[in-house]
């Protein structure tokens, strides 16, 4: 089994862009990052799944040798991951819409209560 270098570089680029976008403070960029990470994982599953490119998972006819077949488990996992990514994207879109309706901005700000808890934790004596 040989690895496709172009596919691995594409997976790496999608993962890097996805992580960068998820770390942004704007909800739409976070959503795009989640989608890019989902696509990178799908490509990784198909690449690691092995098998020749473009072949169906089940061959018809009298040739039933597993040499020319692709792995059906990898394809089933990718189909499941696509549905999960789509559901997650719809959920994040709903959260973004609700946050925009409440705050009229898409930027995620620091929560003042979290800042107070962090300041209180730093002021406590570590010996106690």
Automatic annotation (TrEMBL):
Subcellular location: Cell membrane
Transmembrane segments annotated in the record for this chain: 6-23, 30-52, 72-97
Residue ranges the record marks as coiled coil: none
Biased composition, class Basic and acidic residues, residue ranges: 119-128
Record-level GO cellular component terms: plasma membrane
Membership in a protein family: Belongs to the CPA3 antiporters (TC 2.A.63) subunit C family.
NCBIfam families referenced in this protein's UniProt entry, alphabetically: PRK07946.1
Protein's name according to its UniProt entry: Multisubunit sodium/proton antiporter MrpC subunit
Provenance organism: Nocardia ignorata
């Amino acid at each position: 089994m040989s690895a496709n270098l172009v596919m691995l570089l594409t997976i790496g680029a999608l993962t890097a862009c996805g992580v960068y976008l998820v770390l942004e403070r704007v909800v739409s960029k976070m959503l795009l990052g989640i989608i890019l990470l989902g696509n990178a994982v799908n490509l990784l599953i198909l690449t690691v799944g092995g098998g020749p490119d473009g072949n169906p998972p089940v061959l018809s006819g009298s040739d039933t040798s597993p040499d020319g077949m692709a792995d059906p488990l990898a394809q089933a996992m990718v189909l499941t991951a696509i549905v999960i990514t789509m559901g997650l994207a719809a959920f994040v879109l709903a959260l973004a819409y609700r946050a925009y309706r409440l705050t009229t901005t898409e930027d995620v700000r620091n929560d003042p209560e979290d800042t107070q808890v962090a300041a209180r934790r730093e002021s406590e004596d570590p010996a106690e």
